[in-house]
């Protein structure tokens, strides 16, 4: 649906996006994840022909995007992080305006339908009186006016309070499987909740692109938090165990990651028992996308 | 493009630009004949103890006063408003929203030019009617044909200034840079026009004296129409230039 080949963008001496090749499959929610300044918005702006790639190509539905052609945008809806609206317009007027820019038939009817979908009822209220969350919902509504195949969302929750964020995430959930969603964010929890595929980007380079299910298989290693009667001896033991990896040492507790589950199950308890270590508490921790992100970035920096 | 023009008109109405310009044009249109008729009397009365002889005011004084105003205060206001109107989508952050839709950059520029020129035509028609009526009431005569022609020449002068504003609004991302450059061009043409070289008789700012000379029936029509044609060509070139710059410009 969206594909980039060796996409690169230089701003004077700075490389914002570096040789980026990504593939967003039809109907998927594609999490485009990176820290602030990683090159996410620059990539989106190149997809939308707001910026010219220094090198590389963008394809929409396998057709190469021409910077001077605007017609391919008929199939795309866009939501930015801090949407800006003409202050003198009401929500409905704004949506009708957007609908007319897309040349859709019956924009007024569509505007009411969309406002209902995003949960904005007071259609005559001026946009300048809206909260950030309401503005973001309106922006999502505007992005749906042309009933797009592709929805590009650039950090749609980054400027919102928890309530606004929750509402926006609910809307994205409703859109999942209906649209191909290119979802750029630095909030890993959000990405984890909605995405099928993720791409980690750092300093303009792709670090990883994988389905969440594959990530879980390859990166989601079991992590445990253990508390014993003798933490000092435990630590000495853990360091020698080649089937696990100590992640964090605290005075009372230790966090470790299991590398070889089979060996772990066979030997771990036995080793503790042989060394007279009694377990006070042992709990499995949930591995998050954040853990993976940190690990991938660290590996990349070490590499 | 119809949608762009429609919403540019909505913008002009809702942000009160239309109202401000109509009031401004009408104010000077109505004041011009009054000033021309009564200013000499007023000055004579103010100059106590000094004997000043003013010639009897004629309808031509009213014409000169009106076209003088059109090329001073009104022209400057038009320039400030034009740059603001053209560049606001960039400075206020609306442009990425507009250009992420299937909107042609060429149509975007053309819609702005078209809307702003239409705004000026409206204001000039209202001002022309007001001025004509007042001039006729006060002086008892009016040359409607000459006034229409002079207003047409004046409109082309405005179109040129607007095209300059558009060109620099396309080129720059800052309001002050664009308005500064537009005023710079106006000043340069003003200086060149003051130099007595034949070629400089056809500069765009020469349309100002030509409009006045039309009213005073002292114009060299050949020179005026040549200048008129040259200015129209320059306007088209500047609009093409604006489109070319804007089509290649990156937006973020």
- How large a portion of the residues of chain A is in β-strands, by DSSP E? 25-35%
Largest interface: pair, residues per side: A-B, 27 and 25 residues
What structural class do helix, strand and pairing data of chain A support? alpha/beta
Q: Using only CA atoms, what is the Rg of chain A? A: 24 Å
N-to-C terminal Cα separation of chain B, in Å?
23 Å
Give average pLDDT of chain B, whole number: 89
Q: Helical proportion of chain B?
A: over 70%
**Count of distinct strands of chain A:** 14
Shape of chain A: elongated
Q: Kindly state the mean pLDDT of chain A as a whole number? A: 87
Brief write-up:
With 303 residues, chain A is an alpha/beta fold. Chain A contains ten helices and 14 strands. Helices cover 36% and strands 29% of the residues of chain A.
Looking at this protein, list some descriptive labels.
heterodimer; A: 303 residues; alpha/beta; six-stranded mixed beta sheet; four-stranded antiparallel beta sheet; 14 strands; 29% strand; B: 252 residues; mainly alpha; 10 helices
Q: Can you walk through the features of this model?
A:
The complex is a heterodimer of chains A (303) and B (252). By secondary structure, chain A is an alpha/beta fold. Helix content of chain A is 36%, strand content 29%. In chain A, α3 crosses α4. The longest helix of chain A is centred in the middle third of the chain and has 14 residues, at 162-175. Chain A starts with a strand and ends with a helix. Chain B is 79% helix and 0% strand. Chain B has one domain (2-247). The relative contact order of chain B is 0.13.
Draw up the topology in text.
The complex is a heterodimer of chains A (303) and B (252).
Chain A: E1 2-11, E2 14-24, E3 29-33, H1 40-47, E4 55-60, E5 63-64, E6 76-79, H2 91-101, H3 107-117, H4 132-144, E7 150-154, H5 162-175, E8 180-185, H6 188-194, E9 197-202, E10 205-211, H7 212-219, E11 223-228, H8 231-240, E12 244-249, E13 253-258, H9 261-274, E14 279-285, H10 289-302
Parallel strand pairs in A: 3-8, 3-9, 6-7, 7-8
Antiparallel strand pairs in A: 1-2, 1-4, 4-5, 9-10, 11-13, 11-14, 12-13
Helix pairs in contact in A: 2-3, 2-4, 3-4, 4-5
Chain B: H1 2-14, H2 17-46, H3 59-70, H4 73-91, H5 95-99, H6 105-139, H7 144-171, H8 175-194, H9 207-215, H10 221-248
Helix pairs in contact in B: 1-6, 2-3, 2-4, 2-6, 3-9, 4-7, 4-8, 6-7, 6-10, 7-8, 7-9, 7-10
């Amino acid at each position: 649906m969206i594909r980039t080949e060796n996409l690169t963008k230089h701003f004077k001496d700075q490389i914002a996006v570096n040789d980026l090749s990504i593939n967003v499959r039809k109907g998927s929610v594609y999490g485009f994840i990176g820290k602030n300044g990683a090159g996410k918005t620059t990539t989106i702006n190149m997809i939308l022909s707001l910026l010219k790639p220094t090198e590389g190509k963008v394809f929409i539905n396998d057709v190469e995007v021409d910077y001077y052609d605007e017609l391919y945008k008929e199939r795309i809806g866009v939501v930015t992080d801090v949407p800006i609206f003409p202050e003198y317009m009401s929500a409905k007027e704004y949506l009708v305006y957007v609908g007319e820019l897309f040349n859709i038939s019956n924009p007024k009817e569509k505007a009411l339908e969309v406002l209902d979908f995003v949960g904005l009822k007071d259609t005559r209220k001026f946009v300048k009186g809206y909260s950030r969350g309401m503005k973001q919902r309106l922006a999502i509504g505007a992005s749906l006016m042309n009933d797009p195949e592709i929805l590009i969302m650039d950090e749609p929750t980054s400027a919102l309070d928890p309530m606004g964020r929750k509402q926006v995430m609910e809307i994205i959930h409703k859109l999942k499987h209906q649209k191909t969603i290119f979802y750029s964010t630095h909030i890993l929890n959000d990405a984890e909740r909605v995405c099928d595929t993720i791409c980690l980007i750092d300093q303009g380079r792709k670090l990883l692109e994988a389905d969440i299910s594959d990530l879980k298989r390859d990166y989601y290693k079991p992590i445990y938090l253990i508390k014993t009667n003798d933490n000092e001896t435990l630590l000495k033991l853990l360091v020698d165990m080649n089937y696990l990896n100590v992640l964090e040492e605290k005075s009372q507790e230790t966090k470790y990651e299991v590398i070889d589950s089979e060996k772990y199950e066979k030997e771990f308890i036995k080793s503790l028992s042989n060394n007279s270590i009694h377990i006070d508490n042992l709990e499995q921790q949930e591995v998050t996308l954040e853990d993976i992100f940190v690990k991938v970035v660290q590996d990349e920096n070490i590499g | 493009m119809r949608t762009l023009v429609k919403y540019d008109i909505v913008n002009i109405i809702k942000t009160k630009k239309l109202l401000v310009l109509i009031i401004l044009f009408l104010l000077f249109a109505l004041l011009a004949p009054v000033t021309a008729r009564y200013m000499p009397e007023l000055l004579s009365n103010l100059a106590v103890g000094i004997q000043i002889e003013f010639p009897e005011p004629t309808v031509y004084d009213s014409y000169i006063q009106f076209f003088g105003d059109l090329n001073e205060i009104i022209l400057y206001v038009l320039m400030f408003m034009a740059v603001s109107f053209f560049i606001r989508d960039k400075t206020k952050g609306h442009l990425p929203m507009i250009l992420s839709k299937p909107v042609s950059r060429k149509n975007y520029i053309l819609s702005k030019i078209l809307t702003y020129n239409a705004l000026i035509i409206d204001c000039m028609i209202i001002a022309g009617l007001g001025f004509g009526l007042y001039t006729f009431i006060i002086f008892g005569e009016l040359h409607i044909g000459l006034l229409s022609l002079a207003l047409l020449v004046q409109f082309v002068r405005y179109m040129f200034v607007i095209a300059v504003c558009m060109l620099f609004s396309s080129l720059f991302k800052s309001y002050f840079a664009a308005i500064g450059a537009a005023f710079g061009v106006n000043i340069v043409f003003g200086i060149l026009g003051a130099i007595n070289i034949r070629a400089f008789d056809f500069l765009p700012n020469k349309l100002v004296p030509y409009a006045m000379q039309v009213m005073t029936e002292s114009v060299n029509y050949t020179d005026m129409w040549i200048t008129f044609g040259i200015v129209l060509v320059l306007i088209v070139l500047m609009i093409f230039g604006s489109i070319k710059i804007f089509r290649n410009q990156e937006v973020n």
